[in-house]
Fold this protein.
Amino acid sequence: MEFNSNYEQKIMTDLVSYERNGSIVVIAIENGAVNALSQEVRSALWQAVERFDQDDVARAAVIMGAGRMFVGGADIKEFGKPPLEPTLPELINRIEVSTKPIVAAMHGVSLGGGLELALGCHYRLAMPSTKLGLPEVTLGLLPGAGGTQRVTRLAGVEKALDFILPGTPVTEATALTLGLIDRIGEGSVRSAGITFANEVLSADKGARRVSELPKPAPDRDAVAAARTRLGKTAHGQIAPFFVVDAIEAATRLPFKDAIAEERRLFLELMQTPQRAGLVHAFFLERKVSQLRELSGIAPRNLSTIGVVGGGTMGAGIATAALLAGYDVCLIERDESVATAAQRTIDGNLAAAVKRGKLSEVDRENLLSRKLLCATNYGALSEANLVIEAVYESMDVKKEVFARLDEVMKPGAVLATNTSYLDVNEMASVTSRPGDVVGLHFFSPAHVMRLLEVVVTDSTLPDVTATAFAFGKKLGKVSVRSGVCDGFIGNRILTRFRGAADRMVLAGASPYQVDRAIVNFGFPMGPYAVADLAGLDIGFLTRKRKAADRDPRDIIPVWADELYHMGRLGQKAGRGYYIYQERGRSGEPDDEVNEIIARCRAAKGVVARNFGDDEIQRQYMAAMVNEAARVVDEKIAARPLDVDAVLLFGYGFPRHRGGPMHWADSQGLSGLLADIQTWAKEDEFFWSPAPLLERLVAENSTFSSLNG
Ligand code: T1G
């Protein structure tokens, strides 16, 4: 493999260092935040290994990462483009064929191609607290640089399946148990690597190649069980099935042929829309908080968080803040509800202990030292940020804001958790509208990752920055929203729920709609979601909007009837579905179909059949059409912000990348044509969004607006 030596010499210095320590050479990768294995890094590593092989003084080498980690993976930015030489498999093979021993010394994070690079080395160590993983399946891929083959040779079929299919990293201790590493290092990663290399030399062990290990024994039961399990959990994803195929190939084929099969499967996955969707989701999770309006703006300091209202949301927000390390002061109207809120928080923390997210000692410490539940507003005087989570009534919220304005110290941030009310109006009752912002959490607030940061006409930039910093500390995906009814997510939800209701009125059953939407990739359909949230929520929302409703709009009167029958959903044991046990999936109910049939008859509607494809197209077109309006009106800053909201707050299938990414992948002109066709029958509901029309006219895409 010939390279321009001057170019590689420079690259060697900048991205990969080569330093001899006695007879041990230390090769260190230094490439940005995660030492991604870009083409330049791969070329420089290739040159470093060539140099090591020709270096007569050098008897062993250590490959490590500079900075805070070993290697975060292949360079995801190269995906979808023609592979650049040396490819990662070629580089790893070059390392493995070296005749002198090479040790991988890992610390911090070793993921994807990083771990595969280490598996091509002859010996491996990881420092305490290292995370090692092959997360490729979360990007719609499989480990394409030998990971499925070398892990299976080291750990066996069943353990390889358990390690690669979830895509979640393991600790260094687990990696040791799996045989992926030889030891856990001590001291600094560099000295641990040199020590290990010297021991290898002293023991005269030489190069030890994973590819030369015997073929792993077949395990038909494990392979069959994995495929069966994926049939229920993959929700349409392809990559996990290819992982099983690659691991199974390890037991059938000689290494050279098996690695070629792995590469074939990898390159096939690289071309799929699912890979594009998942990579889009990966980058947007980071890009969504990178807003021009926030660049250079420092957030205000936060140490004590106040919460007004200890119901499900308030207690959830308090739990999230406690878990993020803040002091929390929650106030309620009297002792009994304040105590009840404390119990709810304790229950949330106990669940976190059960999930292994928290130790029992930490739980007790949080409750005793970090949480104060009180009944007087004065207790909030030292809080830097207070979030109200009281009853969804503008009058009640205005009263809360007025009292907060009286007691909170200057510079503190006043926030509301409202899910749709006008935050501008709440700010107007305070003396400091610039310090007011919306923080719309999604229930359960300490679990759901989405946080809509609702910016009013007056919100100061450093208050917005503070909201984003708070969201990041809580591990949220924070999305900036303007003020409108329902902000980004609930406003769009209203439209695609409306499309579902129109199809039910026209002849589809709610159960067929749910099945079609689950087949699209959502975990639940809209009617199962309604049962989960409670049919009273929908009823009260319709009642709230009744005064302003356009007479051409369609009301799901059957839903009102179910509400009046007390069929409130899961919490009542029945809604659209009948639930034998709480939290279990419900059974369809013919009585509901009869109620809907009566509603159709009352409106003179003759039911027609719907196919799953039409259900999916109408549901998605309504979602995209309204999302286009939300972007056009600058409620969402970019289409990727809408994708983030639907992905992290509404169960949108991640492998489809979000509604805007999905729409681009479908082609906007076809989507617009569908909408124009349906508008002929229902112009009110299906009027095309002007942005969608503009993009089609310009032959452009939503992604062109992502900046
Ligand atoms: N490639 C390119 N850029 C990456 C990257 C990667 N692998 N990982 C992170 N970045 C960027 C990220 O977008 C952000 O950019 C910055 O680095 C800091 O990231 C052949 C094919 C490693 C745990 O899936 O999980 O190897 O926003 O904020 O919180 O089989 O990044 O600053 O411009 O997330 O400290 C497999 C993906 C790839 C791991 C660090 N590897 N990365 O978390 O930093 S596929 C992964 C992560 C592969 C092989 C296959 C995390 C991290 P910006 P960050 P962090």
User: Anything to note?
Assistant: The chain has 29 helices and 19 strands. Residues 33-34, 36, 72-77, 88, 109, 111-113, 116, 135-136, 139, 141, 143-145, 147, 283, 286 surround (2S,3S)-3-hydroxy-2-methylbutanoyl-COA (CB under 6 Å). The chain has a mean pLDDT of 95.
